Amino acid sequence: MTKVQVRHGPMRIVALAVLGAVVAFAPLGSQAAEPAAAAATTQNPRDLINGVAQQLLKELQTRREELKNDPVALRKLIDETLLPHFDTQTAAQRVLAVHWRTATPEQRRRFIDAFYKFMLQTYGNALVEFTPNQLEVLPFRGDPKANTATVETRVNTGSGKPIPVNYSMRLTPTGWKAWDVTIEGISYVLSFQKDIGAEVNQKGLEAVIARLESGQPAQPAKPGTPAR
Question: Is 57 helix (H, G, I), strand (E, B) or coil?
């Protein structure tokens, strides 16, 4: 994810794409809007992404100044609009990879919660700058009978060629849910898997969770530093 951010400059350019990353780490058990969750069971994956995006962008258009000045209201909007449509546990398991298996249930819960808050803190404010004409959801080209799918979108930055952003989806008992976001071929799950995996190897899972909980960016450990 860092590579994408550096390449395209200001975070607001990729904030909309990173929404998948934000809500994919939303706390397990969070309460979300029931009507939105119910609708997910009948929509195809492309229509789901398009509908959720348009709903969110409409709220941003009408409440932009309020949301800029009220982080609590912004988080509530993201929770209610996006959370029902992302597979939180699949994303978290893939990011932690082998470390998920050795983490305690409490560490897993804390990791998901802390990562969500960290991502929201990093990208949430940038999100409110987006306008509806910056997002284009492309026609669905997958197999309608499959239980996995990729939804392709483009984010128009106004400064050159649109950025391709693809959502990896899976069909769950409660409908289609996204578990990964790929920006210009770079998977956020794999990017975070490498970065966090290296940090856990050097500092230990508990230290990484504590760092995320504090809202501090990662600090490279010295080569050869053992995990604690």
Answer: helix
